[in-house]
Amino acid sequence: MSAPTIVVHVDLADTLECRAEVAAKLAREWNCRITAVCATGLVHLGPTLSPGQATDTYRAAVAAMQHFGDLMVRHGIVAVCRHLSNTNAATALARAAQGASLVIMSHRVNGATPPGHLDLCEFVVLNTSCPILIVGTQAQFGSNVIIAYDGSNAAFHALTQARPFLEPAQRVTLATFGPSRTASPAALDNAIDYLKSVGIAPTVCCDNGVDDVGRRLAALARNRHADMVVMGGSAHPRWRNVLRGGTTGFMLEHTDIALLMSH
Predict the structure, then answer these.
(1) In sequence order, what are the residues at sequence separation of 6 or more whose Cβ sits closer than 8 angstroms to the Cβ of residue 242?
(2) Per the structure, how many domains does the chain have?
(3) Which end of the chain has fewer CB atoms surrounding its CB within 10 Å, N or C?
(4) SUPFAM superfamilies in the record, alphabetically (predicted)?
């Protein structure tokens, strides 16, 4: 049986070094192999680009992949499976994530959130079965974790998939918000029982007077000095509007904390 795989989104953004450091650390701890995915988008952009622009786009992708390889060597990882795709990043990452243990992406690109980046993160979350780790600018995180829990299947799935991050954490907070989104007592007990069964004793925080969950979750993470948030992402016929306007979209766009999300 082959070793489990961590998929890393590769581009020339300034956050690539953070992704590489996190990937190398987890690969050593979990005994995983690394698959680097870099997408040119030429299949879709080709008709709109001149031959020179297409060549520059391809060369930039090759340069990004080479830079990532150099970063991994710096972190002691020599063997990396490199996948250079001519489709878009969303499709390439979703395909590569089949059977993977984790996908690593970034909040922002060169300090900003460019058009389409939130769509990319949301698409990958909703179209993969493995958890998605979206890192900020800090490679060290996971000692103080908040689990945003609403009792949904997606939230419980995220909680169970986060176990490798939760077990070594020094502090774990199980947070529910409401009133309408607060987990039922039975669902909350189920989550607490699961955590205790794997040796994790969470602090429970129930806030029933919240309308804007995204802002409250971000404030809770800031006030408790959390360095990671675990949360679920639920599919919906109008998923773009729901996620972007909801908790997931707010956390992606307005925070820089590491997010572990699962659908």
Answers:
(1) 234, 236
(2) 2
(3) N
(4) Adenine nucleotide alpha hydrolases-like (SSF52402)
CA 145, distance to chain mean position in Å, is 14
Q: What is d(CA 16, CA 75) in angstroms, rounded to the nearest whole number? A: 13
Residues 13 and 63 in one domain: yes
Given this model, what pLDDT does residue 10 score? 96
For the stretch 47-98, pLDDT in tens is 777 888 889 999 999 999 999 999 999 999 999 999 999 999 999 999 999 9
CA distances from 33 to 3, 54, 102, 129 (A): 6, 31, 11, 18
Residue 53 neighbours by CB under 8 Å, 6+ apart: none
pLDDT-above-90 percentage for the chain: 59
Task: Indicate if 9 and 131 belong to the same structural domain.
Answer: yes
Q: Is 261 exposed, middle or buried (0-12, 13-18, 19+ CB in 10 A)?
A: buried
Instruction: Say whether both 122 and 158 belong to one domain.
Output: no
Domain range holding 162? 144-262
